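Archive maintenance. Older records in this collection stored only the sequence; we are now back-filling the structure field for every entry so that each record is complete. The fields below show one back-filled record exactly as it appears after the update. Entries are processed alphabetically, and Formyl-CoA transferase is next in the queue.

ARCHIVE ENTRY
Title: Formyl-CoA transferase
Organism field: marine metagenome
Length field: 282
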Amino acid sequence: PGLIYASIKGYGDTGPYSSYKSFETAAQAMGGAMAATGVHGGPPMPTAAGIGDSGTGLHMAIGILAALRQKDKDGEGQHVEVAMQDGVVNLMRIRLIRSLSTGEPNERGVILGKSNLPPTFACSPGGYDDYVMIHLRGQLWETVLAVMGREDLIGDERYGDEAARNERPDEVIKIVTDWTSKKTKYEVFHELASAGVWCGAVLSPEEVLTNEHLIARDMVVNVADSDRGDYKMIGCPIKLSRSPVEVERAPLYSEHTDEILRDVVGLDPEEIPSLRDEGVIV
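Back-filled structure field:
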């Protein structure tokens, strides 16, 4: 009665799709994420973030922790179940606000409201990933103008609010790009971010692995492995003040079988060799 056990399936244990299989991109498709991702007029696209696999795993971890807290209160365990489709839908909450409130037809790339302005702007030297994301909405527009040295446009009614800027997207893009294209994405990021603007250099996955800030926060770590050789790994994003997480090498195949059977299952150590001889375990 005190056992907590968990299961993940593509569509869960109930419902008309419960017998169907799923995986990462299928979950994105069935959770609404794929239809919302892409460019206007283009086909649905998956996101590179593992919201179907890793996102579902995070939901499961939260569920298990909740079940453990419930067990602390009443001593009873329970079954924790998460469907991949459900997990993606939950992560789509921001985009689904528009569907729930307006009922407008889906338009790829539109999250809460339509905008004629792109979220990213080209930077020097003009490479494949040389872009910076800049949030131009609200009063941040005037801050961006000040940082760019375009104080002459502050208060200009042609660009005074978001609606006005949406009517002149080509002009706004040129104003911003004339400045960003002369600087690297990191230079633009530091100048704007230090002024309080919501922005970010567009980092490639490879740049993520060498990013100074992520390395300083132990999000990219070196793992020692005498069997397979040392390698880099992604660190733990959850920082605990009293019990920091150390990323260690992955265990070898069947490395802890004996320990688990002995200490967790309670099997007599003398029975383990015969199980291995019979091929029950390796």
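Update note: Strands lie at 5-9, 79-83, 120-122, 131-134, 199-201, 220-223, 231-234. DSSP finds 13 helices and seven strands in the chain.
Entry marked complete.
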